[in-house]
Design brief:
single chain; 725 residues; alpha+beta; 4-stranded mixed sheet; 3-stranded antiparallel sheet; 46% helix; elongated
């Protein structure tokens, strides 16, 4: 894949970011979450989130669909099975399983058959995912991987120097651990890295565990110099090192994935004095300018794309170093100041522990103080996300047994929209028995109250803003919206849209986001009226336009996006704005212009253009390769160690048929929607996109969630093509 070089001059603003982030990297917990001004300031330094106003004057007259569709203008164009026709008449829409590989194909087929397009929210937010994933991969390949290689070289050299200087002192083992730590990170990214003889045995064992990625064991590097203890020693889940998401595409991305996973997951626990010494030495190196520039470039860029670290990091420890030891510090000076070390550890106890636990630990009967077990320093810690915090508060041990004595070890994707205000998701969770677990209802209520109070926090990075974009899908539509949007079935459909897009978000950010852990124990003929309709979600389109602009401008300010992608993001921004305007006019029952109907008619061609653009460096040459670049994807989002994970994903693009009002008459329009999957799976077999796609193609995928069956019918539909065609 070819990329334009990063414009280094545009990265000078990172010096400002270094000062902004000194306020802290980790987040608070439920009940004590305050607006994080440093995070919001960081986002503003990349690009501000500019809200777009919405004119929501919904006054569409209610309408009824005849059971035989006799009052639908173009009903004779469609052949429905009895159950599909019944559902269409009852709800005003029906979703029928299809074998769509990408959204654009649904709309291009419509254009060829002169079938009115129904532009779905699903299709629109899916295209943001395509660009987000594409841009993140570009940033990684053209900027982050080169910076990480430099950072590895610099800090590996410093670790070797520290080890030589501290031999014979109480800090020798901590320095040797750092030498091994940075050697592992370096070997994972650059396999030809020479392994120092002093740490060869531990490094080779660690690399072997990472490459096999099929077990949960004590970390050889983190337990070096100690007597391994299955309870007290740091345990690592090596299944997390299975390259997945877009990182499975190339060897370079696989290597980057494993190196960053290592730096993001390994915790130097505060409770362990020797591990804390290692963390202090790392902090000292960065504080003294050794690799600081490279570290900040990686951290600030990924913070804008995904979020800030959930764990204690360099910035907090750097401040404590000054308070405990003073200024002008060296490794030797620190190693001889026992009082300073004691003061440092005491000060560090006041730092907030991580909100999300991603360390395998035992349950309360063995390790009762979870915060004590998980608090510590991470070199490039995985990121806090709102959905991961929701999960953390809704599984064991924060949620206790139900009356049957069962533990909720894995969350449900439904927890996220329910916490964000979806009454439909909450109802389904009650039906599934989630509220029977002790503390579940109370914790859900706390999360709902917290999220309802959020304001500017939604715009602190692209991840949060993506969730904010989906928020309107959790709100029931009021009177004045089209009749097909005013029933329970549509609420379930919007839930699937939310979760389908959320699954894409989790897929795209799988390397950086922190997983919570439960504890062990061609067009048609003109004479056919094929005017279509946009799913009227103006608030969502406005937010998506703002998110698109924030993404484009933030990367542009740092020289991390090329001119071609700037143009593509401009096009996406304008398209989403036009869909917002059309939605507003539909809700106000104002007539659309011919140009607006033409935009709806040619929507598939625009989606196809975007699809080609994001895959232009992946060998895509024609639409005949669609099965090589399908929309379906998978991501594991939570872990129940040692055996199980929760997988969420999307499958084939299904067809949706909707009865919509146009110029006082009812007609059927057709579009594409997500098929959303969620199921437990073996941790040793965390699914890649390719393996998941093979499961879909071979009809071996688990069943779709039961709650989707009230709008998704196993029926059939076909199109009648007039003879003159």
């Amino acid at each position: 894949m070819k990329h334009s070089p990063v414009n280094r001059q545009l990265l000078c603003g990172l010096l400002i970011l270094m000062m902004l982030m000194m306020a802290g990297c980790n987040s608070g917990s439920i009940g004590g979450l305050d607006p994080d001004s440093s995070s919001i300031a960081l986002a503003q330094e990349f690009a501000p989130y500019k809200k777009i106003p919405v004119q929501d004057t919904a006054k569409v007259k209610p309408y009824h669909v005849a059971p035989d569709l006799s009052n639908v203008f173009n009903a004779e164009r469609f052949n429905f099975s009895d159950n599909a026709r019944e559902s269409l008449a009852k709800n005003g829409f029906v979703v029928i399983p299809a074998m769509g590989h990408e959204f654009f194909m649904t709309y291009e087929i419509n254009r060829y058959d002169s079938v009115p397009n129904f532009i779905t929210t699903d299709a629109v937010v899916h295209n943001y995912h395509l660009f987000y994933s594409h841009l993140l991969q570009n940033v990684e390949q053209q900027a982050l991987i080169p910076e990480l290689k430099k950072l590895n070289l610099i800090l590996l050299k410093q670790a070797e120097k520290d080890y030589q200087e501290l031999k014979g002192t109480e800090w020798e083992n901590a320095a040797r651990r750092n030498l091994a730590f940075f050697t592992v990170g370096s070997v994972l990214l650059s396999p030809d890295t020479k392994v120092p003889s002093a740490v060869k045995a531990e490094v080779n064992k660690e690399i072997s565990l990472i490459k096999n990625h099929n077990s949960l064991e004590l970390s050889p590097v983190m337990t070096m110099g100690t007597k391994p203890d299955v309870i007290e020693g740091l345990k690592e889940d090596y299944t997390q090192y299975i390259p997945r998401g877009h990182y499975a595409k190339t060897d370079e991305l696989k290597q980057y994935f494993q190196s960053m996973m290592w730096y993001g997951r390994i915790t130097f626990r505060l409770k362990d004095a020797d591990e804390t010494r290692s963390a202090i030495l790392m902090t000292l190196a960065l504080q003294n300018g050794v690799g600081t520039w490279e570290w900040e470039k990686i951290y600030s860029t990924t913070s804008f794309m995904v979020g800030k670290s959930d764990d204690i990091g360099y910035n907090q420890y750097a401040e404590l170093l000054k308070q405990a030891y003073g200024n002008n510090l060296t490794a030797k000076k620190i190693a001889t100041d026992n009082n300073g070390f004691d003061k440092f550890r005491q000060l560090a106890k006041d730092l907030e522990p991580p909100v999300i636990n991603s360390i395998p630990i035992f349950d309360a009967s063995i390790q009762p103080n979870r915060d004590k077990e998980i608090a510590g320093f991470r070199f490039m810690g995985q990121r806090y996300t709102l959905d991961a915090e929701i999960f953390q508060h809704l599984i064991y041990r924060e949620v206790l047994e139900n009356p049957a004595g069962e533990r909720r070890m894995l969350p449900s994707g439904l927890d996220v929209p329910a916490a964000m205000g979806s009454g439909t998701a909450e109802t389904i969770l009650k039906e599934q028995g989630a509220f029977e677990f002790k503390n579940y209802a109370a914790n859900m209520s706390k999360m709902q109250n917290y999220i309802a109070r959020l304001t500017d926090e939604w715009h602190q990075n692209l991840y949060w803003s993506w969730l904010y974009t989906l928020l309107p899908l959790t709100i029931d539509k009021p009177a004045g919206y089209p009749s097909f949007m005013l029933n329970e079935a549509w609420k379930h459909k919007e839930l699937a849209t939310f979760l389908g897009s959320w699954a894409e978000l989790k897929h795209d950010t799988i390397l950086y986001t922190k997983q919570n852990y439960a504890e062990m124990g061609g067009g048609g003929m003109d004479e056919i009226d094929d005017r279509g309709y946009v799913e009227p979600n103006p608030h969502l389109y406005a937010r998506l336009a703002s998110l698109t602009a924030m993404t484009r401008d933030g990367l542009k300010m740092r020289g991390l996006i090329d001119q071609k992608d700037i143009q593509n993001m401009d096009q996406l921004f304008e398209l989403v704005l036009q869909l917002k305007v059309i939605s507003e006019k539909e809700l106000a029952e104002e007539p659309l212009t011919e140009e607006e109907y033409e935009l709806i008619r040619t929507f598939g061609g625009q989606l196809e253009h975007f699809w080609f653009e994001v895959h232009r460096g992946d060998g895509l040459q024609s639409r005949s390769q669609i099965s090589d670049f399908p929309a379906m994807l998978i991501a594991d989002v939570a872990t129940n160690p040692p055996a199980e994970v929760l997988e969420v994903g999307t499958g084939y693009v299904d067809n949706i048929y909707v009865v919509v009002p146009i110029d006082g008459t009812l007609r059927i329009a057709k579009g594409g929607v997500y098929s959303y999957y969620e199921f437990p799976w073996a941790a040793t077999d965390r699914l890649t996109d390719r393996k998941w796609q093979e499961m879909i193609y071979s009809d071996k995928a688990p069943a779709l969630p039961q709650w989707t069956t009230n709008y998704r019918i196993k029926g059939t539909a076909s199109i009648n093509i007039p003879q003159e065609f």
